[in-house]
Task: inverse folding
């Protein structure tokens, strides 16, 4: 995968407490927001590829069930998407 536009996450929605992101093999910044627009997580992924989010916030606590918005950014492109967590 070369283009950030082709990035995706699975399973979506999830009830397992883990979501895998398939990303291009380069530096990507991922930000995850709750539906109220509050940032719950951010990380710089220097190598891209497959990355697993354990459905935790920046304080290392499990996030609540609901809809979340993710923003992926590389040097050229930004991609947004939605993901669902079911507990």
Result:
């Amino acid at each position: 995968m070369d283009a950030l536009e082709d990035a995706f996450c699975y399973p979506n929605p999830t009830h397992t407490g883990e979501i895998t992101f398939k990303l291009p093999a380069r530096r990507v910044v991922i930000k995850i927001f709750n539906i109220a627009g509050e940032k719950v997580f951010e990380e710089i992924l220097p190598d891209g590829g497959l990355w697993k989010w354990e459905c935790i916030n920046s304080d290392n606590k499990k996030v609540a069930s609901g809809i979340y918005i993710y923003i992926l950014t590389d040097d050229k492109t930004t991609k947004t998407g939605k993901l669902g967590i079911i507990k």
